[in-house]
């Protein structure tokens, strides 16, 4: 987890060369739709990227788990629109991903991929592979592979849109944040017995909220859920109590309203953490943890927020006596 700032620097320096063929493909194919496909963490990465490509490139961009392509293809693989498929997998060996690659290739669709293993089966089957090898990791739980593949794919979208915001500064900010917040997070975990984690994020940050939710399940075996912030009012809010810890990945676009929701959660005695890229005043919120990451884009703030959640997962796992390198019932590569 703590290797991320250094790894991101390397990843960013490789981006221009690494994304070139993919960027050319997007320009030349002139596709109407792009589908980002993944499983688990890589599916949540797909969700975040579908939003980024939709917003920055005005393409119709979708995220699907690989199993949808395998079992419900008639709902997706039809119509005259020109489709591109971008496969996401750290290992490139997840059975559903390899099977989805096979199916899409057999049907003649253009298939590209991002992975941390250049020689994997999925990579070999794809027309174009972006390999972020330096971000590969031994751990079962995906941490730096998620953030590094995200950085690379956002770079590609921003290059196409003609405005690159992802640069080495994000690595410096992450290093500084880790230093600044480790003690606070560890003290909070020691002093607050949390039964349930809730992560809220809108737009691109919904994928990050889902990924944070998964990290807490995998690393700490805690109940953990994720919602679009304003969906939380439509039912889930009835479960708020002092044992529920709600994290908001605040977006620039809806920060004011999202903070209002957090206020309601505090009034119901829930505990709160806010990771906010904008400087909205929240002195009256009294969140237990509040990380101001101002002057950052939603994408950059999401990255910092995720590192904070990953660290929190570590501390809680340690406190519960769990070995995060060997999470219950999980394997590094899911093979059917
Ligand atoms: C994705 C995944 C992870 C999960 C575990 C096993 O794999 O299912 O979401 O946490 O680490 O792998 P991949 O297709 O990205 O290699």
TrEMBL record:
For the protein in the UniProt heading, the enzyme class is transferase
Where do the SIS domain residues begin and end? 22-170, 185-327
Q: Where is the signal peptide?
A: none
UniProt-listed Pfam families: SIS (PF01380)
InterPro entries recorded: GlmS/AgaS_SIS, GlmS/FrlB_SIS, SIS_dom, SIS_dom_sf
Q: Which ranges does the record mark as transmembrane?
A: 34-53
Molecular function (GO) terms for this protein are: glutamine-fructose-6-phosphate transaminase (isomerizing) activity
Q: What is its EC number?
A: 2.6.1.16
Record key words, sorted: Aminotransferase, Membrane, Repeat, Transferase, Transmembrane, Transmembrane helix
PROSITE patterns linked: SIS (PS51464)
PANTHER family registered for this protein in UniProt: GLUCOSAMINE--FRUCTOSE-6-PHOSPHATE AMINOTRANSFERASE, ISOMERIZING, GLUCOSAMINE-6-PHOSPHATE DEAMINASE
Could you identify this protein by its name? Glucosamine--fructose-6-phosphate aminotransferase (Isomerizing)
């Amino acid at each position: 987890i703590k290797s991320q700032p250094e790894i991101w620097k390397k990843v960013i320096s490789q981006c221009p060369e690494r994304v070139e063929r993919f960027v050319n493909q997007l320009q030349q194919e002139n596709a109407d739709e792009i589908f980002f496909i993944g499983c688990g963490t890589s599916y949540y990465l797909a969700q975040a990227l579908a939003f980024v490509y939709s917003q920055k490139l005005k393409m119709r961009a979708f995220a699907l788990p690989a199993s949808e392509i395998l079992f419900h293809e008639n709902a997706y693989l039809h119509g005259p629109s020109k489709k591109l498929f971008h496969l996401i997998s750290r290992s490139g060996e997840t059975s559903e991903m390899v099977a989805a690659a096979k199916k899409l290739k057999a049907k003649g669709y253009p298939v590209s991929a991002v992975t941390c293993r250049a020689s994997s089966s999925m990579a070999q089957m794809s027309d174009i592979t972006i390999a972020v090898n330096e971000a590969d990791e031994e751990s079962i739980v995906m941490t730096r592979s998620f953030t590094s593949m995200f950085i690379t794919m956002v770079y590609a979208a921003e290059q196409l849109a003609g405005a690159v915001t992802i640069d080495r500064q994000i690595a410096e900010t992450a290093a500084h944040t880790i230093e600044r917040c480790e003690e606070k997070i560890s003290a909070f975990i020691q002093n607050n017995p949390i039964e349930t984690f809730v992560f809220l994020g809108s737009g691109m940050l919904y994928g990050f909220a889902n990924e944070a939710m998964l990290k807490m399940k995998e690393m700490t075996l805690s109940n953990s859920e994720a919602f679009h912030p304003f969906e939380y009012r439509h039912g889930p809010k009835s479960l708020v109590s002092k044992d529920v810890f709600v994290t908001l990945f605040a977006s620039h676009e809806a920060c004011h309203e999202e903070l209002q929701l957090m206020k309601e959660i505090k009034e119901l005695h829930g505990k709160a953490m806010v990771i906010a890229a904008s400087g909205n005043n929240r002195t009256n919120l009294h969140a237990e943890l509040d990380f101001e990451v101002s002057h950052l884009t939603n994408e950059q703030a999401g990255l910092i927020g995720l590192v904070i959640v990953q660290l929190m997962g570590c501390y809680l796992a340690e406190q519960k006596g769990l070995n995060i390198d060997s999470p219950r019932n999980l394997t590094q590569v899911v093979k059917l």
